[in-house]
Amino acid sequence: CATKKDHENGVFSSGSSIIYRLLLVILIGTISIWANHEASKGFKVTIINAAAKESPAGRRFDLFYVSNDEATRIILSTSAVVENILYADQSDDQTKKPVRHVVLQLAAGDNRTATKVSVDTSRSKELVYVISLSPSIMEESNVKYSVISTIQRAMARIWLWDGKSRAPPWLIAGMEEYIWMQAGFGHHDKETALHSRSKFRPEQFCSVLSRVCSKSSKLRPGLKMNISAICGDHWKWEKTGGVCREEDDKDPKIVALALGYIEQKHKGYVQGLNQILRDGWD
Hints:
The structure is a single chain. The chain has 3 domains: about 40 residues; about 120 residues, no CATH class; about 120 residues, no CATH class. Helices cover about 55% and strands about 10% of the residues. The radius of gyration is 26 Å and the shape is globular. About 0% of the residues have low confidence.
């Protein structure tokens, strides 16, 4: 017959089995929740603190942006803003730029350049977009605003098509500025933009209009753009001998204002321009 010790061993074995099963269920549930969370993001997000951990910038970044997942939330929220501007109402996923993995890193402590942010790409098994923040951003008077507004610019750059690397830098910088302003940053500039649009004349921002209007015929038919309504005033100006100022396309703010003017004429133009950039820029 079974001894008391055998009985105790059986109870222990049964209890261990139950605990094991519970742990397995919890593990599977955790993995499922994590997988659903990753799927909901649409792309993988990795946060890296490349600055010295003992440095003031490194400590602040860890405390305010890494330990509580705030950096990940900022990446996702700023990405959603850009996607809504560039890809709203576009059901065809093939028109959307594929973004699978974004890395946000606080650059090494000795990398204190005047540029707050840079966006690079690297490729191993997949294309990875790397956003590098200068440690100096952690020393600004309003760190929260600086970090969010800077990442907003970076996410705009990531989601914009670049004309197969042939798009003019002034256009990409101007579209980035336009998205940044539409996201609610640079309030003074946005008010200036609204004021400028109400008094817009064809000779203003003429160089910008000339270049983007010349591409309007390439807009996808599904966008149903009224090209005459968008660029008619500009073409009329050219026919009467109007002269464009070439320096107007050197300032991203001016390009952003011109894009805002066209967008006001016909909602969806900026989306269409981004799709032109998807197919190249000659």
